[in-house]
Automatic annotation (TrEMBL):
Pfam family, any one: YqeY
Molecular function in Gene Ontology: carbon-nitrogen ligase activity, with glutamine as amido-N-donor
Protein's organism: Actinocatenispora comari
Region (Disordered): 121-151
Signal peptide, first to last residue: none
Protein name: GatB/YqeY domain-containing protein
InterPro entries: Asn/Gln_tRNA_amidoTrase-B-like (IPR003789), GatB_Yqey_C_2 (IPR023168), YqeY/Aim41 (IPR019004), YqeY/Aim41_N (IPR042184)
Length: 151
């Protein structure tokens, strides 16, 4: 079991003892998603810290999208619950890249790969995405790559 997985389990147990329903329920949901990822496919495997991190990132994205959908439907209480769950998940995710950091990273990777034209965006994204995994939303990265290639 990865150390991140162990930390999630320990924190869920602590949340149960502290009667912190939000944290308990959020971590229970994440641990279920991790278990599902471990047992999907032909054979059960144990996820590494990076793979657990990917599951956390995916779940955090689901929470952001659900909050936006609830806001659009006028369901502010449900949207707030989703945002609160996203805050719990953020404790386990690496810090988001600032706009300046993202701009700098994209510029460096575009220069390294020799990408200069907008039609090379797909290739550039393949090179950049692993470097920003979990630290920046894909839409933000794509917008920055597009902006720099167009300029």
């Amino acid at each position: 079991m990865s150390s991140l997985h162990e930390r999630l389990r320990a924190d869920m147990t602590a949340a149960m003892k502290a009667k912190d329903g939000l944290t308990r329920d959020t971590l229970r949901m994440v641990l279920t998603a991790v278990r599902t990822a471990e047992t999907s496919g032909t054979t059960a495997t144990e996820l590494s810290d990076d793979e657990v991190q990917a599951v956390l990132t995916k779940e955090a994205k689901k929470r952001r999208e659900a909050a936006e959908a609830f806001d659009g439907a006028g369901r502010t209480e449900s949207a707030q619950r989703e945002r609160d769950e996203a805050k719990v998940l953020a404790r386990y995710l690496p810090a988001e890249l600032s706009d300046a950091e993202l701009t700098e990273l994209v510029a460096a990777e575009l220069a390294d790969g020799g990408f200069t034209e907008p039609r090379q965006m797909g290739q550039a994204m393949k090179q950049i995405q692993p470097k920003v995994a979990g630290r920046a939303d894909g839409k933000r990265v794509a917008a920055e790559v597009k902006r720099q290639l167009a300029g």
